[in-house]
Each structure stands twice: as structure tokens, then as C-alpha cells.
Specification:
two-stranded antiparallel sheet, 12 helices, Molybdenum cofactor sulfurase, PyrdxlP-dep_Trfase, PyrdxlP-dep_Trfase_major
């Protein structure tokens, strides 16, 4: 009703790009920031002062996001690490940038994909990986949606240093190649929705492709799901629990879910993913709030979380 009053006789035709924001969301955010009952908000990385209250706020925000995506129990929520980003585009960039791509790696993506998802292959190609475009469709002769066939549309690879990179290992022989399948939960252009079963088909293809290139036994492949559009269809539009068995990472934009704020998204990392994704993600760059200490006159950095026994990817990504 509120939106109809604001639009009047006009039609809003960009719901795939961003859903209209509600006045309650804008007013609620302003009220929370300006309320005299709460202390002024400081830097969230500060241990005390105005930044000290952000820990509980972040925890509530993460829990609210996961509940919106269908994670009701504490066990469901504990399976996912929430890394805040500026949107799905940055989430996809962060995911591809933080993975240890090596010669012999394979990145497979569907023909129907957002430009931001296609951008992920740049990191893989720069490291000597192969990029493969595929098309998923209903298996011929079977009932619609009961089975899927996969057709290769194109494959390409770049030359590194004037010569094709060696297959099956990293440049120094220490980094094993990896396989990844990237697909949207819903295509921005066509509106076609993909399912976890199609993700399973794509992961199997990527793993087999990796095995054929490296000569190793067929292993597992990572799966990255662009859920920015799918999650914008209201509560229950994207069920994260249904994807938990196939998706290792999920990218979101909150403005496509609730319209406001426009510069907030998340990368959800599956703690128990099929490819042990959380142990692979490592970024080289660090900034304020991501480290405990750094020496200015020596190559010594203590990243936040490195002293907790390991196992958490979040301190390296946030």
C-alpha cells in the first residue's frame, strides 16, 4: 500500500535490479543511529567506546539474514559464516580472489550468468586455469525437472609467460589445482531458476574435467551460487538449507532483498562444504580491523584469528 502511494500512476520496472525500499527501513535505520537511548556509533573495530556495541549488533544482523534465508535452528546458522561485503559483486570478487588458483585448475560456469559471476574467471585464467561455459537443460526423453543434461558451449585458456602453464600443479609444484562450478540461483535476464540438483550436475562435470586435465583421480569441486536475484523474492524465495549440501559459497545483495541499504551484501561460506572451502580462502591484502599486529620494519603480520587454533576463514576475509 505504501509503495502504491509513492508510485502513483508510475510503474516500477527494475525489480530484478533492486526492489523498492520501504519507508520503514529507512526510518528505522535513522532512528537506530540517532536514538538518545544508545551511545553514538564508533568504529566497529574498536574494542571500547562507541564501537564496543557493534559485536552484538553484528550477531543479530547475521542471525536475521540467515533466518530470512530459512535457517531457523542454531545448527543451521552455525553451518554458515557471514562475511559482510558491499554487495554480491564484491562477494563474488572476494571469493575468486581468495582461492588458490593454479595451472590445471578448472572454472565452469553456466551460459546464463550475471556479468559479476563471469568476472570470477579472470583470476582463474590469470593463473593458467581453464574456463568452460556450459548449458544446463532437461534430460532428453525424461520428465521436465527430473534430470539434467549438460552441454559444453565453449572452453578457453590463456598463455602465461609466453608458454602454456604446466598441468596438474601450481607454479612451484606446491599448489594443487582446483575445480569450481558457478551458477545463479535465478537468472537476472530470463528469470530461470536453478536448483541444487543442477548444481550437483555441474559440480560433477567440473570435478571430472579436473581429473581429466590433471591425470588425478576424480575429486570434488567447489560450487559458488549467485543468489542476489533469487533471494529478492521475499521470505522463503531462496532456501539456504536446500543448498547446504551443494553450495560452498553464496553471494547476496541486501538491496535486492529489502531495497535499503544499497551498499551492503554478504558472502556466505559453508563451514562444512564439500571442498573444505573455508580452509582454502586466504587473502593477501589486509587492512584496519583484520589484523592484531603488523611490523613496519619487518615482514611480520599477525592476522586476527590466527592465534585461535585456525579453522575460521572469516578473519582473513572481513
Amino acid at each position: 500500500e505504501e509503495l502504491r502511494r509513492r508510485l502513483g500512476a508510475r510503474a516500477y520496472c527494475d525489480a530484478a535490479g533492486a526492489v523498492p525500499y520501504a519507508a520503514a527501513a529507512v526510518c528505522g535505520a535513522a532512528e537506530a543511529l540517532l536514538s538518545i537511548e544508545t551511545a553514538p556509533r564508533g568504529n566497529p573495530h574498536s574494542g571500547g567506546g562507541g564501537g564496543g556495541s557493534y559485536g552484538a549488533t553484528h550477531a543479530r544482523a547475521k542471525a536475521a539474514l540467515l533466518r530470512h534465508l530459512g535457517c531457523e535452528s542454531a545448527e543451521d546458522c552455525a553451518q554458515w559464516e557471514v562475511v559482510w561485503t558491499s554487495g554480491a559483486t564484491e562477494a563474488l570478487r572476494l571469493a575468486s580472489e581468495a582461492l588458490p588458483w593454479a595451472p590445471g585448475s578448472v572454472i565452469v560456469h553456466t551460459r546464463e550468468n550475471h556479468t559479476s559471476a563471469l568476472g570470477m574467471r579472470e583470476y582463474a585464467l590469470a593463473a593458467g586455469a581453464e574456463a568452460v561455459c556450459v548449458e544446463l537443460g532437461d534430460a532428453s526423453g525424461g520428465p521436465p525437472g527430473k534430470g539434467f543434461n549438460l552441454a559444453e558451449v565453449g572452453a578457453f585458456q590463456r598463455r602465461i609467460g609466453g608458454a602454456q602453464a604446466a598441468q596438474g600443479s601450481g607454479a612451484d609444484g606446491s599448489t594443487a589445482p582446483l575445480a569450481m562450478f558457478v551458477l545463479p540461483a535465478e537468472c537476472n535476464f530470463s528469470g530461470r531458476r536453478f536448483s541444487p540438483r543442477e548444481a550437483c550436475t555441474g559440480k560433477a562435470f567440473a570435478a571430472a574435467r579436473l581429473g581429466g586435465r590433471s591425470g588425478s583421480e576424480r575429486g570434488s569441486a567447489l560450487c559458488v551460487v549467485d543468489a542476489a536475484r533469487a533471494a529478492g523474492g521475499g521470505t522463503g524465495a531462496f532456501d539456504l538449507r536446500a543448498w547446504a549440501g551443494e553450495a560452498d559459497m553464496v553471494a547476496l545483495s541486501l538491496y535486492k532483498i529489502c531495497g535499503y541499504p544499497t551498499n551492503l551484501g554478504a558472502l556466505l561460506v559453508n563451514r562444512g562444504g564439500s571442498g573444505a572451502c573455508s580452509s582454502l580462502l586466504k587473502t593477501g591484502y589486509f587492512g584496519g580491523g583484520t589484523i592484531d599486529a603488523a611490523a613496519v620494519d619487518a615482514d611480520q603480520v599477525v592476522r586476527r584469528g590466527d592465534g585461535d587454533g585456525g579453522g575460521s576463514c572469516a578473519p582473513r576475509l572481513q
